[in-house]
Specification:
A hairpin with an 8-residue loop joins strand 2 and strand 3. The chain has one helix and four strands, in the order αββββ. It comes from Streptomyces incarnatus.
Length: 83
């Protein structure tokens, strides 16, 4: 669990964005790979806010090795790709 907390904190520090949840994670040969849901743009009503999923890669020590945005969506919309 500490790895997840560290990943959220490191992503927030680098991007200035607010991570809301970790939607997936797995251990890899090099460390950890996570998908983190982030609030990118708050709107009213909240269901129209823009969210994004970031793939976050951590090394064996839980330090951020890289990240990238993999999708962007409105909070209130279902993903047509079934993700």
């Amino acid at each position: 669990m500490e790895v997840l907390r560290q990943a959220r904190a490191q992503l927030a520090e680098l991007t200035g964005l607010s991570p809301e949840s970790v939607s997936s994670f797995e251990q890899t040969e090099d460390g950890w790979s996570l998908e983190v849901e982030v609030l990118e743009l708050a709107r009213v009503p909240d269901t129209m806010s823009l969210m994004a999923s970031y793939q976050v890669d951590l090394d064996q020590d839980g330090q951020l090795a890289g990240y990238r945005r993999v999708r962007r969506y409105e909070r209130g919309r279902a993903d047509p790709r079934g993700r």
